[in-house]
């Protein structure tokens, strides 16, 4: 598919600044419109010491400081999906700098699924109303003068979206670096075949499209990386590159996922992120608690 098939100008080169969180191997981004001071934050992190039950904001504060020191205007806080491996720092950053918080409209599916797993009461809204914007497949929004395009890319979760911003695409967990392959597809609502189809949508973007990862784990001891291209993924991705078939991918991904442990922070992450990064409501004494569903995941 050619760039002319997409409703954005792919010749625009947004300025992308990455922030790596070593505790969760997450990469967050500040994406700036080259023609203005407008920017967006993608996949921010709130810090948690799970053993101590302590929340801090060092990672988010680095992003706030960068935006303030460069005189930028924050317009959007984007979540590519409901993360299971880190807590979102978006509402904290929004409280400091403003902007609208957006996620894919299938957040409602995730909220329904995990609302049951965590036995949330009727006060927990499952309509996505915790977010300012629910993106549908094909939606266009703007960061300053830049038009941005949203693609629905489920499979890892039912609510995964890829955000195409000029000549850059932010793929969430749909893809990893070529030597990292792809994300797992065994969470509730995940599907290996659907993930393969979504990856093909990403790989149909122009070969020189820059791709930015949400995670990297430095396979085989290499340095952490987060940027590659569609062309490099098509040729070198160890899970889907060089024309690997849908059937091959499903067989590999299913077998691989069966060997994986749950992410260390999946229990707090899902409870917080399905609420748009907010902690569960405090009890009558003013204290906040997280639940641990026994044999629920």
**Total domains:** 1
The top-level CATH class is Alpha Beta
User: In sequence order, what are the helices and strands, one letter per element?
Assistant: EEEEEHEHEHEEEEEHEEHHH
- Could you give the distance between the termini? 39 Å
Strand order of the largest sheet: 1-2-3-6-7-8
Could you please say which CATH topology applies here? Metallo-beta-lactamase, Chain A
Describe the structure.
This protein is of the alpha/beta class and 297 residues long. It has one domain: Ribonuclease Z/Hydroxyacylglutathione hydrolase-like (Metallo-beta-lactamase, Chain A). The protein has seven helices and 14 strands. The strands form three sheets. Strands 1-2-3-6-7-8 form a six-stranded mixed beta sheet, covered by helices on one side. Strands 9-10-11-12-13-14 form a six-stranded mixed beta sheet. The protein has a two-stranded antiparallel ribbon with strand order 4-5. Helix 1 runs parallel beside helix 2. The longest helix is centred in the N-terminal third of the chain and has 12 residues, at 58-69. The protein starts with 14 loop residues before the first strand and ends in a 24-residue tail after the last helix. The model has no long low-confidence stretch (mean pLDDT 95).
